[in-house]
């Protein structure tokens, strides 16, 4: 389906007109479960917000107070406490009026002020881009959640009402808000178990982004629903009859996927609507856990279960606290039947999650307690992740990863169950146990068998991690880890390692340039160094050396400032020695693959340190105009590592030619990293091999050995 914007779709309101609510409606709704004193506080908060927003209107022309009033009503429908509903009424006063956080705390309470401040955005002027603003605002809100989880519930209610009333905004703004809702807020609602809100957010976002697809799917579902009545009634009657024979009482509901979930299933599995709608789904709600398993027996006796399609989320709840039994049955006429069986308490939890039966302070509900415990565990993980994230944008990307898990369940050696996203590796498991375990892991055992760290795990496996105090995270791990915690921890370690490498290189570069002035860093007065650090707004000398090593500042300029001599502009005659073990701040250009023995030059690249090129590299022609970024480098005498290099071989097409070449290279103590073959004609092929060598002498020995192979016509270094 194509969704080219049309006049009709662009002007169409996203949602049906919102009912006009009054403060009396809100007070009546809250009086059913709150004390009269608390209802009076809510009314007082309303009048405070109305006065603060006096003269402000929404894009629709309505008085602004209609929005916070609607947000508070959403919270009241979830039976949230009085402080949360007051925060809903006041959630925009800090951001959009002259009211301060301190003023709110004085007028109402510190808790109400904390909730409102947590939902309020940061000053827009502080950010360079919309992406940075979004990321930093989310980071602030999620950190506020760690103090009081009601912050996100207020924010979700705010987002829900905004999504219901998007029709008056510009098309581009509507789409941006809808994207953000589907990417961040709907998944957060799901992560907190608030599925009722999640479904509405998803459908509203889908409606804005793809109005034609939404309308087509809605019409198709409506038609299919009418055609399905007979078979749904037949299945329901059979279940009720067998249930009564077993003396069970239950509520049986026909269950439909929301429009967005239906669309995702069609898109991800490339299914037509007819095949998706062929599945008949039922939800059976019983009194208690015991009845859940008895009802499962009834369903499996009535219809044959599909092998491998049973999931027990009661024994092993999902990470958001969701509990239910899921099974798929062969129904009448061979149609598949999806059945969910849960208790009434589980049903409330499945719909409202942490907001279910809100008992924030009394903690009288077991399901509610579990939801809070799991939500706080997740928030604790976010806190740990944000501490190690480089900036707010990196944190946001890691959050996106964390919000879309398809879970698997694996066991520790002691039998503890851990939930991980589908596709998780041994390293992901290690970091989920503890950051220190992940940082020092060297291997893993699955069912007592040693496996590589990149091994993907599946549900039911028992995993043991083997660690070593001398082991450290490897950059290659980033190619296969998928959890946000693992990715953040590895990047944090590598960043620290890079900073250490940068400081060492920066010290060498500064020493090289100070030699020109016949002085050393140790001879520079401490006061002069402090004065320079203050001028550059750097915390300490290590930070300055790190900046030099990463190429963010010129070592020559810093040397001149330290000796207070701006007239000498000559480069130091002693080159910087390169051994290949400088870590992450010295890299070797892939365009020319320099190896020990090659004449080389060093180019200082901002953020990367020194990039080593062969002096004859053609790709550096444009860079040669930047004289200040080139430095003299030379190979150290004790280079002991191996370097990749490309060689081109022109050989006859004969059986086993590649194997013969591989053997010859192996005989010379070299490895082949990569091979590509281009058949020029029927008789000859051109091969590009990436091999590992120690230096130019080693390369010459390999080439001499290859020239003795009969089928090779020509050989050259690329």
Short description:
The chain has about 725 residues and is of the alpha+beta class.
Describe this structure in words.
The protein has 718 residues and is α+β, with helices and mostly antiparallel strands. It folds into four domains: 7-209, Hypothetical protein af1432 (Orthogonal Bundle); 214-355, Beta Polymerase, domain 2; 491-635, no CATH class; 643-717, ACT domain (Alpha-Beta Plaits, 2-Layer Sandwich), CATH 3.30.70. Helices cover 48% and strands 15% of the residues. The protein is built from 27 helices and 20 strands. Strands 1, 2, 3, 4, 5 and 6 form a six-stranded mixed sheet that branches.
Query: Separation of termini?
Result: 49 Å
**What's the multimeric state?**
single chain
Report the helical percentage.
40-55%
**CATH hierarchy class name of the largest domain:** Mainly Alpha
Q: What is the second-level CATH architecture of the largest domain?
A: Orthogonal Bundle
Q: Describe the sheet with the most strands.
A: 6 strands, mixed
CATH-defined superfamily of the largest domain: Hypothetical protein af1432
Instruction: From the 3D structure, determine the CATH topology of the largest domain.
Output: Hypothetical protein af1432
Count of the domains: 4
**Secondary-structure class:** alpha+beta
Number of helices: 27
Unreliable runs, pLDDT <50, ≥5 residues?
Answer: 1-17, 122-128, 357-365, 566-572
Shape: globular
Average pLDDT over all residues: 79
Supply Rg: 33 Å
- Strands, count: 20
């Amino acid at each position: 389906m194509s969704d080219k914007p049309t006049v009709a779709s662009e002007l169409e309101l996203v949602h049906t007109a919102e009912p006009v609510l009054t403060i009396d409606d809100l007070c009546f709704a809250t009086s059913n479960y709150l004390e009269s004193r608390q209802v009076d506080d809510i009314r007082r908060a309303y009048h405070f917000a109305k006065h603060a927003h006096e003269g402000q209107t929404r894009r629709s022309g309505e008085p602004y107070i209609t929005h916070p009033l609607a947000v508070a009503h959403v919270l009241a429908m979830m039976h949230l406490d009085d402080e949360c509903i007051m925060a809903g009424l006041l959630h925009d006063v800090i951001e959009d009026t002259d009211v301060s956080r301190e003023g709110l705390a004085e007028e109402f309470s510190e808790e109400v002020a904390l909730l409102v401040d947590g939902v309020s955005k940061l000053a827009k002027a502080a950010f360079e881009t919309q992406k940075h603003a979004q990321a930093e605002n989310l980071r602030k809100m999620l950190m506020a959640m760690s103090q009081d989880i009601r912050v996100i519930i207020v924010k979700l209610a705010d987002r829900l009402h905004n999504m219901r009333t998007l029709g008056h905004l510009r098309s581009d703004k509507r789409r941006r808000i809808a994207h953000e809702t589907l990417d961040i807020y709907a998944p957060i609602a799901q992560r907190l178990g608030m599925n009722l809100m999640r479904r509405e957010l998803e459908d509203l976002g889908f409606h804005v982004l793809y109005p034609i697809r939404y309308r087509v799917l809605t019409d198709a579902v409506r038609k299919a629903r009418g055609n399905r009545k007979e078979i749904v009634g037949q299945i329901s009657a059979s279940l009720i009859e067998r249930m009564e024979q077993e003396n069970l009482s239950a509520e049986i509901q026909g269950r439909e996927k929301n429009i967005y979930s239906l669309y995702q299933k069609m898109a991800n599995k490339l299914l037509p609507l007819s095949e998706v709608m062929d599945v008949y789904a039922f939800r059976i709600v019983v009194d208690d856990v015991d009845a859940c398993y008895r009802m499962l027996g009834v369903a499996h006796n009535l219809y044959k279960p599909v092998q491998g399609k049973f999931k027990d989320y009661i024994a092993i709840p999902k990470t958001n606290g969701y509990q239910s039994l899921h099974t798929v049955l062969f129904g009448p006429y061979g149609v598949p039947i999806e059945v969910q069986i849960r208790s009434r308490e589980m049903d409330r939890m499945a719909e409202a999650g942490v907001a279910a039966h809100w008992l924030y302070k009394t903690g009288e509900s077991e399901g509610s307690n579990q939801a809070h415990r799991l939500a706080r565990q997740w928030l604790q993980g976010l806190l740990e992740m944000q501490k190690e994230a480089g900036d707010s944008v990196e944190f946001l990307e890691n959050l996106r990863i964390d919000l879309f898990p398809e879970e698997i369940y694996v066991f520790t050696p002691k039998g503890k169950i851990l939930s991980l996203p589908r596709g998780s590796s041994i390293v992901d498991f290690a970091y989920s146990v503890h950051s220190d375990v992940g940082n020092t892991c060297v291997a893993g055992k699955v069912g007592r068998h040693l496996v590589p760290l990149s091994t993907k795990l599946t549900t039911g496996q028992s995993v043991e991690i083997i660690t070593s105090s001398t082991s450290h995270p490897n950059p290659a791990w980033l190619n296969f880890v998928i959890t946000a915690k693992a990715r953040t921890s590895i990047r944090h370690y590598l960043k620290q390692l890079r900073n250490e490498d940068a400081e060492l290189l920066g010290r060498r570069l500064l020493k090289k340039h100070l030699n020109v002035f016949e002085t050393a860093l140790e001879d520079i007065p401490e006061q002069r160094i402090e004065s320079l650090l203050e001028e550059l707004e750097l915390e300490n000398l290590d930070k300055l050396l790190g900046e030099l090593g990463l190429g963010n500042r010129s070592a020559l300029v810093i040397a001149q400032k330290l000796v207070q001599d701006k007239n000498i502009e000559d480069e130091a005659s002693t080159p910087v020695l390169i051994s290949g073990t400088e870590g992450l701040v010295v890299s070797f250009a892939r365009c020319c693959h320099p190896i020990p023995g090659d004449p080389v030059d060093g180019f200082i690249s901002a953020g990367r340190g020194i990039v080593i090129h062969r002096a004859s590299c053609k790709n550096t022609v444009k860079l040669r105009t930047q004289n200040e970024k080139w430095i003299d480098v030379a190979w150290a005498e004790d280079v002991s590592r191996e370097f990749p290099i490309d060689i081109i071989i022109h050989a006859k097409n004969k059986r086993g030619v590649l194997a013969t070449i591989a053997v010859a290279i192996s005989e010379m103590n070299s490895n082949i990293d990569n091979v590509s073959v281009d058949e020029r004609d029927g008789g000859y092929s051109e091969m590009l091999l990436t091999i590992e060598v120690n230096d130019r002498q080693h390369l010459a020995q390999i080439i001499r050995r290859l020239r003795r192979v009969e089928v090779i016509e020509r050989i050259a270094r690329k």
